[in-house]
Write a structure and sequence with these properties.
With 91 residues, this protein is α+β, with helices and mostly antiparallel strands. It has one domain (2-66). The chain has 1 helix and 3 strands; from the N terminus they run αβββ. It has a 3-stranded antiparallel beta sheet with strand order 1-2-3, covered by helices on one side. β2 and β3 form a beta hairpin. The protein starts with 7 loop residues before the first helix and ends in a 25-residue tail after the last strand. The relative contact order is 0.15.
Length: 91
């Protein structure tokens, strides 16, 4: 998978992120800006450690969302509707 990424810089950053999560066991959520083919690209990535035996990390679940326009503000992750309750709300 890493060898298919278009830019060496992107491959190196992905490798560092994957290695960090695999070694630490801590999830990673990051917003990043890269220059690819002379264009600035903004994206958010999440890397989650997984374990088939509950102890040793042997898989990573990776998500990546590219911004439609690099200069647009990020979309809200959650929109509250009237009457919605969330953890921490006082009723």
């Amino acid at each position: 998978m890493l060898d298919q990424l278009p830019v060496n810089e992107q491959r190196d950053l992905a490798r560092q992120s994957f290695t960090s999560v695999a070694q630490s066991g801590a999830p990673l959520d990051a917003h990043r800006d890269l220059s690819i083919d002379g264009r600035r690209v903004h994206y958010e990535t999440i890397v989650l450690p997984l374990s088939s035996d509950g102890t040793a990390i042997d898989m990573l679940l990776i998500g990546l969302i590219h911004s439609a326009q690099p200069d647009d503000p990020p979309e809200p992750r959650l929109q509250r509707g009237a009457g919605d309750l969330f953890a921490g709300d006082v009723v």
